[in-house]
Every structure is written in structure tokens, then in C-alpha cells.
Request: fold
Amino acid sequence: MKKIEHIGIAVQNLDLAITTYEMLLNTPCYKTEIVESEQVNTAFFKVGESKIELLESLTTDGVIAKFIAKKGEGLHHVAFEVTDIEKEMERLRQAGFVLINEVPKVGADNKLVCFLHPKSTNGVLIELCEEIKS
Ligand code: ZN
Reply:
């Protein structure tokens, strides 16, 4: 895996969280994007080579809403950039990791993504992401 592409943080209110993270990181949010498939609204910040992704649920029963109801706001996932997501998924499947997505899906920020279940990664939701080449 190449680097930590971004860290995902589940938030209750995206607008308030954007203000907080703009102050914290001293850099403006460069993009907000709704991901229909996940029912989330996202906001991105660049921090050196990595990014911070804030995630707000668009529905009361979406994955982020459920996460916050159970654990509260906070660290949601760590995303690693890979060059060949299919190959990496196969490698991890062979190694016994539990993949949440059988095939890569289109995520936020022009990426193909796949999630690994936290039960096989010591409690951390892991995202693999590969930039979609246009
Ligand atoms: Zn992510």
C-alpha cells in the first residue's frame, strides 16, 4: 500500500465540523461531495500528503448515523491508497481478511473503494482506494 490517503471522521453536523476543522488545520475545505450510494455528505481537507474526510449522514438510518448512535462522533475509518485495488483485494482475501465489498465500488473523491471489516483488522474499519484514471 502506498500511503494513508485519508482518515474518515464521522460527524453530526457537517457545517459545524467544517468550521472546526478549517480552524484546526488552518486550511480551507477544498471540496464537499454527496455520495448517494453511502447516503453521506462529505468534506475534504488536504494535510500534506494525506486528507481528512468528514462524513455526515444524509439519513437517520445510514451507516454513519448508526455509527454515531453506537459510538458517538469520531474516527470512522483509515483509507490506504493502492495502485491496483482488484489485486490488493485478492491478496487480502487470500490472507483471510474479511472484505465488505465483493467488487470495488465508486466512492467519494473520484476513487474506486473497498472496505475491510473491522473484525479482521483489530477493530479498525479499513478502506482501500484507487484513483479513477480519466
Ligand atoms: Zn473514506
